[in-house]
Every structure is written in structure tokens, then in C-alpha cells.
Batch of 3 targets.
Target 1
Amino acid sequence: MVTINYEGKAFELRNEPSEISLKEFNKIFTILNTPEKGKLEQYFDVFESLGVPSELLDEIEQADFIELVKQFNAMQVSTEIPINAIMIEGFNYVAYKDEFKFKAKDLIEIEKLAKRGVSNFPSMILAILFKREDLAPKEHYVLAHIEQKAKLFEKHCTADFALPYITLVARRTLKSLENVESNNGSGVAGDSQS
């Protein structure tokens, strides 16, 4: 947590993933991925969404604002996948059994969501990756079911739970797309010896 002192008052800016709800993280993710806004405006909006008073943000000196952005970005983010399953409201949701394997169907569903521009993209990624154990495989990819799971994750999880999965999905997706795009018709995309 970052403390901001302004006109004799102290304000707190939550910058650790464990302090930020998944619902708030969705909003931050959306703000930081809004290309119509400049980076400084994005951070202004992020800070405001996390409860920093707009009157403080309106009056803060440029150098202090830049320092605040640096402090906010100094958060500690783990890239280690913390758990493979989570119990929410009596149901067990499992991302993987022994080791994390990124399924093609998951990638396709995530790509569809990205194209739709959903405002709760991080929650939806978790909802796609974590499957309810008592359901049939086809049910996992029904949009209404994914949306309901996303709401459950928003209600019960913080950003520190989501970030390792988001990071892993982003890296693997980029790598998959690079493999597909670099394939010049010579063999199967992504089929490499390395």
C-alpha cells in the first residue's frame, strides 16, 4: 500500500494484488488497455477507481504524480501458479490435475472474448480455465456458464490469484500466435523440434 500525503491528510493507494479485488482488477485492466487514452490519463483513472480522491489527483504536482505511478507499478506480482483448484460456494473448480496444460479450446474461447472486448476479461479467463468438476465437458464452454463463473470469481478472489494465470495465458497465447504466423506453410503450425 502506498501512502499519499496531501494538505495534511494521508490517503492510501492499494497497489498490492492481494489488496485489489478481482472486480477492481477487471476495471484496472480495462483502463490500462484503453488505447484512446494516454498512459498518464490511464493511471489517473486507475487511481481514481481505487479510491484516491479526484480533488487530490486534480491538484497533484506532475513530479509527484509520476512518482506515484512508479510506486504503484512497484507491486510484487508472482508468476508462479498458486493452486490448481478452488472451492467456491460448494463447488470445486479445477484448472488442471498434475501440470498446467493450455488447451486449444480454451485459447479459442479466450480469443473470442478478446475480440468482443469484454470489460471483465481477467475474470472471464479464469472462468474458462477453471472447470467445475461435476459438469460435462461441453457445459464448460457455454457462455452463460462462463459469465456466471466469472461473477463467482469476482466475488471470491483477489488480483493475486488471477495475475499468475493471466500472465501465463498471455505468454502462451503470444507464443502460439508467433508459431502460427511464422509457419510459412511448411508443416503443422507450432510443430517444432526445439
Target 2
Amino acid sequence: MDKSAHVKDAIDEFRANAQDLFKKLSDAMAKRDGATKADLEALAKSAKVVADSARAAVISQSDAVKQCLTDSIASLEKARKDAEDGVKRSGQGFETALKQVLLDVRAAVAKASEAVAAKRAGNKKAAA
């Protein structure tokens, strides 16, 4: 497997991990009693792991892919911070934090998808 294929796989894996993070949060919020502080703490840890996994892939990318990955990482870092802050809140403050984390993770997934698309577009140009 060449380096390009490995990097493509890393970007696809990053996007899949970000999507999984979004699904877990959505599922936790949809539970009968809603998401708990433990759910939010786990999400904060997972967001850091997913963001860290993307940092290695950023180095060898085109500018367009780098920008998308950087934006996605920033959204995950914001989600982590919002989750950590949300754990300290209760009632409506906790619910507001949950909604913000969901929006942050959704933005991260969108940017990760843009990175995958930019990478594929770059590969098509190189092959042409």
C-alpha cells in the first residue's frame, strides 16, 4: 500500500470516527432520560482521541484537505471543551451544552466529509 492510500484510509477512518461520535451523542440524547453527565464526559474523551488521530493525517495533505481537516479538528476541540463545561452544569445549562456539543460534532463531521471529497478530487486530478 502506498503512502497516498494509507493517508486516504486515515482520512476516511477519521471521518468514520467523527460520524460514530455524532451517532453516540445523538443516541444518548434520544434515550428516555436523555444524555447523562457520564455520557458527556465520555464524549469529551472520545472527541480528543478522534481529533488527535486526524492531526497525523494533516501533515502530508494538499492545502484544501489540510484546511478541512484543521477546521474539523477545531470543531472537535470545541466539542470537547463544551462537553467538559457542560459536565459542570445542571438543568437547562446542561441541556444547552449538549445541544452545542451536538452542533460542534456535526460541524466536525461535515468538514471531515469535505476533506474526504477534496482528497478524492485531488486524486482524480493527479490521475488525469
Target 3
Amino acid sequence: MSITWHTDDRLRHFTWERAVQGLAANLHWVQGQQVLLADDSDVGIGLACGPLHGLLLDDLAPGSGLAAARTFLARQRADGQFPSTVCAAKTDFDHVHEVVPLMAIAYELWQRTRDGDFLAAAYAAGVRWDAWLARQRGQQGAELSSAIYGMHLALARMAAALSPGRGQDPVAHVWRQRAERIREVLVQRRWSRDVANQHHGLHPLLEGLVDQPTFERIWAAQVVADDIQTALRTLVWLEHYGKYVAQATLLTRWSARLCARPTFRQWAELHLGHTRPSATGDSSAMLLFTESVARLYGVHRSAGGLAWNCRSTPEGTWHAYTLHAADVGDLCVQQRHDTTTLLRSGEVLATVRISGPSSETVACRVLTDGRGRVAGLLGTAPVTTAVTITCDGATQQLSVAPDAVITL
């Protein structure tokens, strides 16, 4: 595995180790690709969640994202349909459901790998998939969905990436126009909490379909993430709409819940409906814990760059999170009480000291590009955090309010 996390919090460290071991145990070869299964009793990977889980696992187990995507790309029918499930002994085409559009995941994987052949193959498959879905809508009267909107946006980005240097690519422009027409139709339905929940777990939010005012109305209805799959998806849209404090609160709450059952065996009963505990653990629950650690105490990818998390801990405590990735190098976050050191390949990028009300946990995120050049700060604590950041030989003292974004 390409991520390590060490902390003097014994329960959290045990939970982390168990999650990493369980995810490794749930990686299995399915029709020529090593992919993440739901747990030890599962026999295949589904289009609904498999590609998303592969992407979330990709930094921890390099190649898992591409393996999950290629599992479906390689088995697309000539008419454009993707399989719903790929098992060791069979491939099923019995339903259509994508939690996150496969094309959106393929585009993000290309951003990491810069594999032009993969991008071209995925784009061509996406065009065929869209045509197949359009025929189904015509034949069965199926509705447009925010997943299709998200797919069209991804295809626009892929088309533009395949034609660099052409300014506004005409093909990409057509995809964006199609996405906008879908957005207009769906937004007219006036998304409410009930409508959002009917569309596969807050899809309109997940795809960034609604504008900020509409989101604020949905947010006011107290949309919550009470199950593991929704929590995984919620991480994306909370960040998209600038709810960084809510994201940290959600992750803190789920981290505590997962630490209460650190073997992850019982989560298969609660989440998957199994009648017996899983021997290896529920992959969704383990992914949620590893994502919680990355977004509270470590470094993760965000908007084409990197987000480094600085979070105060009790005096005398420490933790160190290290990510080894081919495209960004060796990244490390070292935290001791109120001081965080950010390193890339052993070189100190920045030192951050944070403080606030003594009774509150204070935190912020440092934003950098892929090479570690500091670009800004985010407020991830529920109180204003005083930040002293030293980088490139200069020191700045700043105050970061909750959910605030500061450009440096």
C-alpha cells in the first residue's frame, strides 16, 4: 500500500491498520483485472459503485482506479451498453445505475496518469454509452438524470483534452450545450430534499447540477448522510459547494463511529444486509475511514492540486501521514499539537501553526499545486483559526474564518 499513517492514538491507529489490511484482502482478480469487491462474500464488481471505489482506493493501492474502469470499458457491448456487474464467471447487463458517471471517473484517472490512449478509448466508449442511453430514453420514456448531465460535462472535458491547443473545441462545446440543456430541465423541477433523495442519493448535488442559491435551500432542509454510501458521495458535493466545516464534521462523526467497530466486520451486516459478519470487512466502511484520515489529518487531491490538512491535537500528541504517488512524489504531513510540517520528497514546503479558542479544535487546509507551491488556505474549523504559515523563507499571519477561502 502507498499510504502510511502513524499516530499515538492507539485506537485510531488500530482502526487504520485494520482498514488497510481489509481493503487489501478484498482486492481480487476478476476477468483479468484486480478490483475491489464489497467484502469477502462478494463475487463481482458493479457499475453502480465499483469505479468510484476503485478511484477512492487508487492512492492507497495504485492502479485500482484504472483496473475498475477498464473492467467495464473492455466489456462494453457493440451497441454501447456497459455491463451492470462483472463477476469471475459471468457478466450481467440487467440494469443501469451509476453513482458517479464512469466518464467522470475516467477523466479524473487521465488527469492523474496522462495516459492518452486510455483517454481516447474512454471517450469513444462514452460516446457509444450516451447513444445507447439516448435510445433507451426514446424507447422506454426514461427520464433525463443528473448522472447524464455529469457524463456530458465529463465528455466535454475529455473532448477538450483530446484536442489541446485548439482554443474552444467545437465538439467539447456541443457536449457542454447538451449538459446545460439537461441542467435547465432538471432545475425547473425545483430540487427539494425529497426529490434529491429520489435521484440516487443526492445526485443533483453530486454532479454540481444545482447553483449555489438552490444548494443553500436544499442545505437548509438539513440533507444528511446517515449511511456509508451516501457519506462517501457527500464528501464530493460538500467540497464542491464550499461546505468545508460540514465536511470535516461529517468525517469526524463517521470516524468515531467506525472506530467503535474497528474490525469493520459488523458493517457488512448493517450496510450490505448480510446475515453474518464479514471476515475481511466492508470495503465501503473501510474506504470511508481511510478518506476520513486523509481529509482530516493527511493530504488529498483537490481541484487539480493538493489539499494539506492541519488540525490541532492535544498537547504532547502527534501523527504523520505519508502518501507515495508517481505523479506527485512522496508527500508527508507531520502534526505535533498545534504545528504542522508539510514535506515533499523530504523537503519542507511549509510550516503551519494554528490556534484559536482553547476549548475548540482548530484546523485549516493548505492548498498547493501538484508540485507543492502554496496557493491558499481553507477554513475547516467551526471557529476562526489564527494561522502562522512559513514558506519560501517568508512568514505570514492570517485569520481563517469557517468555510473561508484565502488566496496566497
